[in-house]
Amino acid sequence: MDLSALVACLFGSLYGSFLNVVIWRLPREESVVTPRSRCPRCGKPIAWRDNLPVLSWILLRGRGRCCRKPISVRYPFVEAAAALLAGGLWLKWGETPVFAGASIAACGVLLAVALIDWDTFLIPDELSIGLALVGLLFSPLNPYFDAGPFGGWWQAPWWSMRGALLGFGLGWAVAAGGEAMFKKEAFGGGDVKLLAGIGAWTGVTGAFDALMLGSLLGSVYGLWLLRAGKARRSDAIPFGPFLAAGGVFNFFQLLPLGWPFN
Ligand SMILES: [Zn+2]
Q1: Facing residues of 70 across strands?
Q2: CB–CB of 8/104 below 8 Å?
Q3: pTM of the predicted model, to two decimals?
Q4: Which residues have a Cβ under 8 Å from the Cβ of 179 and sit 6 or more positions away?
Q5: For residue range 214-225, what is the model confidence (pLDDT) as tens digits?
Q6: Domain of 41?
Q7: Which of 21, 91, 174, 235 has the fewest CB atoms nearer than 10 Å to its CB?
């Protein structure tokens, strides 16, 4: 195993620790910078040694040192997921280190989007529109938009912008179609903006692939809920987590580029 990938995992786990703060505070419109981390149960500040990603949760057996109340397993889960994503993305994109770092940041945003949407049925614009803008900014370094030696400087930003716009259009069409068919909002405005963000990083085909994969995952989950008797047909399920999973999948380029068009 590559030592640099382990370092990426370590950074990823610290990033995951920050994402936990974002997931909690952003929907509550609190600052993600100050104050320092607090116990989610009693609100006391947490010492750095009790805030080590994954490790502290295990050492404290899932309880706060302050109040001994249980701390959700989601905290170490987010930290571990961010660590694995960072390690995997580093292995995938390490030859272009700046883009590797940018893709780690972007997939972390998708992870935060997934959990915020899961909790609140909302996707904050800061994350979806932020993803689109930063994707545009990093497009010249993005291997997805590599125009080759004869491409102009404008090609990568143009492809990124086109990915965002068509992702937005595709999402909008699905939202309008879904509303006409089911007479309720199945695919909301937050999902549309998220698809634009995914398109800015992985192009038109990336947005399309994320939508297909997200729909597949969402349907499997919905059918499972129905069969297990955990939900009725009229219950809404958030779409963002599945779309975000499709977007993260894209960053690993596991499907041939442009699937299923090429
Ligand atoms: Zn506490």
Answers
A1: 63
A2: yes
A3: 0.93
A4: 185, 186
A5: 999 999 998 999
A6: 1-94
A7: 235
Query: Do 66 and 121 belong to one domain?
Result: no
pLDDT digits 0-9 by tens, 71-121: 999 999 999 999 999 999 999 999 999 999 999 999 999 999 999 999 999
3-class DSSP string for 123-136: CCHHHHHHHHHHHH
Distance 57 CA to ligand 1 centre (A): 13
Rounded Cα gap, residues 187 and 177, in angstroms: 9
Q: Measure 217 CA to ligand 1 centroid, in angstroms.
A: 36
Burial grade of 114 (CB within 10 A; 0-12, 13-18, 19 or more): buried
Distance 29 CA to ligand 1 centre (A): 22
The total domain count for the chain is 2
pLDDT in tens, 191-250: 999 999 999 999 999 999 999 999 999 999 989 998 988 877 777 789 999 999 999 999
Q: 128: closest CA among 207, 205, 75, 74?
A: 207
Q: Which of 94, 122, 155 is the last residue of a domain?
A: 94
**What is the Å distance from ligand 1's center to 210 Cα?**
39
- CA 17 / ligand 1 centre spacing (Å): 17
DSSP alpha helices (H): ranges in 26-124? 55-59, 74-93, 97-120
